[in-house]
Amino acid sequence: MVDAHHHFWNYSTEDYGWISDEMARIRQDFLPDNLAWTLAAAQGYGAISVQARSSIEETEWLLGMFENHAHLRGVVGWLSLAEPEIDEQLERFASHPGLVGVREVLQGMPVETMADAAFNAGVGHLAGHGLTYDLLVIEHQLPPAIDFVDRHPDLPIILDHIAKPLIKDNVLEPWQQNIRELARRPHVSCKLSGLVTEADFHAWTPEQLTPYVETVLEAFGPDRVLFGSDWPVCLVACEYSRWADLVRGWVAPLSDDEQAAILGGNAQRIYNLS
Fold first, then answer.
1. Buried-most residue among 3, 27, 174, 176 (CB within 10 A)?
2. What are the backbone dihedrals phi and psi of residue 158, each rounded to the nearest 5 degrees, phi first?
């Protein structure tokens, strides 16, 4: 199993102010050694580190940890995509064997950002450097996100957290319709991650999540769905091993090859992991 989505941080209130009182359990450091035993307990052997702060310093920090920990398979970092220095940053970082992709925190930005010329110009350089783009949006941002991915047909794009539907309120539409439309783009894949934290942290059930999982599996198919934990964020609602077991259960009706693809093979291929 390859976990296609986790985070590291040295916790501080200044850098991680989004961690609310309700999420107090994760107000602590989470580092490679913590992940190593967590992965092992869930029968995983590798993971992809995804940026949690919009800073070059964090990207450097994540790449440094990649160099020193065998269970880290790649880094989705942050670069200043909309700024003139993006060319210089790509020249500096794209050759690093650990950098497999780039992400911007679009979920907290105006939807107009996805149509911004400078931002799209920066994103447009990624494919030429062998990089991917992680798309982090909320369900109501899906229509402009579809327009965004249409501007980059040659770039592998991976949707994070199934676009954060309104699971807590059991709302499927228009998320379901928009997910199906997005999945018609063959260069877009989807991480099966982040569902438990869009539900009630303490009262969610697997049955509540199942319609969202089934929609993603049907829309993207087993060759474009990736297992992700969103550890340590998931810990506010679900232990890592339980989430891994749930995903294994949802994909159990598929063939052995299809299960292996979702649980690790797709991450290996789409992110071009070494």
1. 3
2. -120, 120
